[in-house]
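Dissemination and training. As part of the outreach component of the grant, students in the summer workshop were shown how a complex can be specified as a set of sequence lines and then modelled as a single object. The example used during the hands-on session is reproduced here so that future cohorts can follow it. Participants entered these lines:
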Amino acid sequence: MYVLLHIFLIYASLPLNINFSYNFGVILLFIFIFLLITGLMSVIFYNSSLEMSFYNLILHSFNSFFYFTLRVIHNTLANLFFLFMFFHIFRSWFFTSSNNLFVLTTGIAMFLVSCAIAFFGYCLPMGQMSYWASIVIFSLLTVIPFGVLILLYLFGSFSISSRTLSLLFLLHFITPFVLLILFFLHYNYLHASLSSNTFKNDFLDLTSFYPLFIFLDAFIVFLFLTFFLFIIFISSYLFFESANFLAFNTLVTPLHIYPDWFLLFPYAALRSIDNKLIGVFLLIFILLFFFYSPVINSLLTRLTHFYTFHTVLIYLFFLLMFVGSNPSVYPYSLVVIFFQFILYILIFIYFFLLLFLNETF
Amino acid sequence: MTLIKQCSRLLAQSSPRNFYTRALLPTVSHWRRGSKSNNSGPKFNYNYGFVGLLGAAVCSVGAALNDGQISADELELAHGHMHWEHKEWFKSYDHKALRRGFQVYKEVCQACHSMQYFYWRLHVDVTHTKEEIKEIAAEYMYPGVDDDGNAIERPGDIQDIMPAPYENEIKARLANNGAEPPDLTLINIAREGNEDYLFSLLTGYEEVPAGQAEPAEGQAYNPYFHGYYIGMAQQLYNESVDYEDGTIPYQSQIAKDVIQYLSWTSHPWMDESIMYGMKAISSAALLTLFTYILMRTRRNGFRSRQIHFTVPGHEKSIAKNGNVSNFSKYKQVDDALSKMKR
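and obtained this result:
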């Protein structure tokens, strides 16, 4: 242990010029560990029967302040995890950290896995929104061949039932450990390749972790902790969805079904077209487009830095979020159509760029 | 269709290579050209194809907007924004208001609405004393089993959840012209707009404006409700309850009290949260301050250091300019080097 610490703190060398944005990773690690702990702690409060889960959850959280806080912490941390994940990704775009394809790919895998975990977790209370969200997501399976059969197998019945909920609970429990494995890969390969340090082979301007960065990290973690404690104790319901405080009702479809904020941008792509199959393709396309954008960018322009591209992408990200968050009724449906149009133009441009620009340069 | 035609014509007019390189990626073409010749300086050539495309998009959206008709019954009035003291940071509930709100709930709302997630005992030391709550709970009958195993009705206990007015959903619907009164425990956080929406809803009943359809049997007109016609008639009027502490029961006062009570039932741990929160946040803030100071003391040394690559024998001249002190880490090496040279 001592040797490990020594290696980690003294021998691990890192460049001196990295700035605050390189701390998002450590915050993510911190959040992830706390998510694991609070998740394991709240396992004993959960009842995975379809009829009882919501009732049980609310009764428990009104029974004990401890469980209430645990639930708030778990929810808030999950949301912050995604927030910092996006910060981390955007940072990697602007600091060319995504040059390393392996690190990039494990990162994307981690994002996708954590989306899945978030979805499983979102379904567990079985409020109104959980129920309909799980219906929507599960029905995406029907686009693949034998999808309906797979769907019925996963449901364990003809619709969402207690068995589905048990399955979701199991998956929500298991998948974080997959994330943990991916994390070790991500971290190991990052440090093996000395990140995106330009002076890779010059060990001139490197420093050890201990005297400087450990305090920087500690400071950032405590700063984060302060804001985090503020959220969980003072505005506890900040990240809770109001529609999910109703017990689910199979007969009443909510007027507007929408996922959590971090899934809004692929959701906008999914919803932008009537056809489910094309919608799913668009969803996958948008995800890959966003996350492999550094690679695409360097392929297109052969430049390591091209900020305009990423700035436009970030604007697009927020636009898609806005589009996805609106219900598809009259005033907003036009907005949706408009951005759908822009999305198509974007895809169009993207392919033509690939065709023309590659040969030009 | 016309839009697509227009776009394709505009696209055809512009030569593809110019289109992409100039209009969409001006910086790339600029950099590229700049690297080949010295002909630098930004070159933003207007590409009419692109401008036309954008224009066409904007126009089509505008035209579509013009076609749309606003139908009044799909919209609802936005709720007002009131000042709720318990929603401020580090503020607690007004417990007198909670007690009054409980009275309103018990005398008015409980006729139709259940509170199925809430225990009687949670009121203890918040709105009432233990004895008072025991008395209130004993007013209601709960299904139970006696010593011989027969089903009986027993008086309520402090450990019970609050009673529901109807036995099941179907009866609730039948009694209210088909509209099911929702459970009120979480109603405050289950509606968009929270307290503000509830206040607007409870006090916002109106005469049906001219041109709108008359509400059906058992319905009332409320512009804040989604769809306007709500299955709950106006419940709160001036003096519809008699407060035991002598507060004057205006409609707005009653609404304010009952909403504060409903807000508490949806977040019964708020006072505890804030109590723990103040301790936790202040200690975390202190730790942040300490680590900040530590970090700065370590960091400043690293951040303000300079590295000089000097030819041996030149350190002095740099020192004269005041850039580097003679107390150099590399002094020994320098000395050794200069000795070797000699």
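Chain A has a mean pLDDT of 81. Students were then asked to discuss how this feature might be tested experimentally.
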